[in-house]
Amino acid sequence: MADAATEMDRLLGIMARLRDPETGCAWDVEQTFATIAPYTIEEAYEVADAIQKEDWAGLKGELGDLLFQSVFHARMAEEAGLFDFGDVARAISDKMVKRHPHVFGDEGGRTAEEQTVAWEAQKAKERGGRVLDGVALALPALKRAEKLQARAARVGFDWPNAGPVLDKVAEEAREVAEAEGLEAREEEVGDLLFVVANLARHLGVDPEAALRRANAKFERRFAAVEDGLRARGKSPAESTLAEMDALWDEVRAADKLRT
């Protein structure tokens, strides 16, 4: 812990130097909460990416990058007289103690399931207001859809199982096919994506993680198609759709053989 405290102090000092208006880094000095926020989101995804790849050496670096984002925001807040990093650390510590009375209080042990229920009840009490209040607007739309639906489900507004959700997916797909005009198509595609996110929740699948895996699979397979074309002395731009489709089918077949 002594080493951690020392290194944390060092990091806070580095951030203060970087933001010094006279001797700091011009880029760091001109940043604001709004300009840094996209980097914060990006760093969180890079942490998730390292975990998915089981790149534990890389995870150490990515967690450092994410920590730096917290330090950056806290430093800007301190300069504005809002709060400082100590306030941030104190707030999260206080919250964790409050939300774990079975650990830090005298309520006794809880199972993981009991803790989940108690956690959500405590968060709802702290939020107050409406059921859907507090679901961050900055979340990726797919993840936010999942969270909105999960919140509604906690008060009983939900399908009983995945069957009716699958029926709804088919219904929304038909409405996409029937939609005319860009605005109507956008609305129907949005409805379809929203229901697919709900289907993932009912199946116990993280839709964001599932889509990331699908993206990675597409990238890998398309790279294999490019390699196949290159072996023929061609690029995708110089090839027909039929040629690329044929190679794509070969790559898919090879994948299925491996699994």
Automatic annotation (TrEMBL):
The keyword rRNA-binding does not apply. SUPFAM superfamilies: all-alpha NTP pyrophosphatases. Keywords: Hydrolase. Signal peptide: none annotated. Residues 31-104, 168-221 form the NTP pyrophosphohydrolase MazG-like domain. CDD domains: NTP-PPase_MazG_Cterm (cd11529), NTP-PPase_MazG_Nterm (cd11528). One of its GO terms (molecular function) is nucleoside triphosphate diphosphatase activity. This is Nucleoside triphosphate pyrophosphohydrolase. It comes from Rubellimicrobium aerolatum. The gene is mazG.
